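Can anyone check this?
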Amino acid sequence: MIRSELLQALAKDNPDLRAEEVEQVVDIFFDEITKRLAEGGRVELRGFGAFSTREREARTGRNPRTGETVQVPAKRVPYFKPGKEMRERLNPS
């Protein structure tokens, strides 16, 4: 599902909201998750999963085009851990 499909599904389920209002809700939702992760926090959506960040150490990489070695700096990357309910829905017994 892409963003436009999500907006269409939400608009269909909430006919009382204008398209601009649905888009604003989605924007706020994603902005708040991003802001919290940028602050080093964690976002947990019960039954869905948890978003957090993980630290990656600096390393030596390789430019695939030239074969030249390059230094890759340390950085934080987003991480998602699915919740128990999601795992059970994806892998029914």
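Reply from J.R.: I decoded it. Residues 46 and 64 are 41 Å apart (CA to CA).
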